[in-house]
Amino acid sequence: MKYKRVLLKISGESLAGEQSYGINKQMLDYYASEIKSVYEQNVEIGVVIGGGNIFRGLQGANKGFNRTQGDYMGMLATVINSLALQAQLETLGIKSVVLSALPIDPLCEKVSSRRAIHYLENNHVVIMAAGTGSPFFTTDSTGALRAIEIKADVLLKGTRVDGVYDKDPEKYTDAVKFDTLSFEDAYEKGLHIMDLTAFTLCKENNMPLIVFEMNTKNNFYKAVNGENIGTTVTV
Ligand code: UDP
To answer: Which of 44, 74, 97, 174 has the fewest CB atoms found within 10 Å of its own CB?
Structure first.
């Protein structure tokens, strides 16, 4: 495999599958099996899952209540998703651990880069929950931060689209996909790949990013294997 240690970011929304809310068991099984196929190649895998299938801070703010409180609710939503993924990985016989940015004894240990690396080196899939532990951040930023902290070779952002286009491919039939891009180009072209905090973290810390479509079988494996799927963004 091209990459030895990766950070996979999956959105919470995608866990809902066809449902508009919550955890779709089929999607959970699917993500766990995709992770398994890469794990079996002795790749060290860190995972960050979003919480949008359960709650987003802005959702609360739009309904008139405190943004900070809503953000904590969103972070807790990522813990629920992380525990669900861990349970599914366990049924597949994969060792995994959930490390949380907010202390939730006795469910998870507190996240730290040292602890995460220790578990990775001991063949655990390391799921990093509760975002950054701070409101006003996103799980994309968490993915970037954790990728840097665990010294991952690459941040893999699994999405619904198969890469980065010059314009919205769902609206324009002549949209062109980029195979590779620099962070500078992406910024200058105003391409929305991740929020700017996440984007800047990757750029300033020389963390390559691959945006790829996660819902096609074996795509995660192919991306880790260095096959040309999705869009690779580098410094
Ligand atoms: N969140 C936060 N700080 C973080 C990460 C997440 O406050 O460091 C909150 C925020 O409210 C966000 C929610 O958790 O809306 C769920 O995360 P996100 O929207 O990124 O999930 P996704 O869109 O990937 O499902």
So the answer is: 174
Say what the pLDDT of residue 62 is.
81
Give me 173's structure tokens. 């039939």
Which ligand 1 atom minimizes the distance to the CA of 9? 24
Any ligand 1 atom below 6 A from CB of 201: no
Q: Whose CA is nearest to atom 12 of ligand 1?
A: 56
Q: What angle, rounded to 10 degrees, do the helices at 67-91 and 25-39 form?
A: 60
Cβ–ligand 1 contact at 50 (below 6 Å): yes
Number of domains in the chain: 1
Paired tokens of 235: 């410094």
Q: Is the CB of 230 under 6 A from ligand 1?
A: no
Look at phi and psi of residue 126 and say left if phi exceeds 0, alpha if psi is from -120 to 50, else beta. Answer: beta
% of the chain with per-residue pLDDT over 90: 94
pTM: 0.97
| Backbone φ and ψ of 114, nearest 5° | -60, -45
In this prediction, residue 59 carries a pLDDT of: 84
Mean pLDDT, rounded, for 119-144: 98
Question: Counting every residue, how long is the chain?
Answer: 235
Average pLDDT, integer, range 170-191: 94
CATH (domain of 207): 3.40.1160.10
Atom 22 (ligand 1): residue with closest C-alpha?
50
Range of the domain at 122: 5-234
Distance in Å, CA 57 to ligand 1 centroid: 7
Q: 131: Cβ below 6 Å to ligand 1?
A: yes
Residue 169 pLDDT > 90, yes or no? no
Ligand 1 closest atom vs CA 136: 7
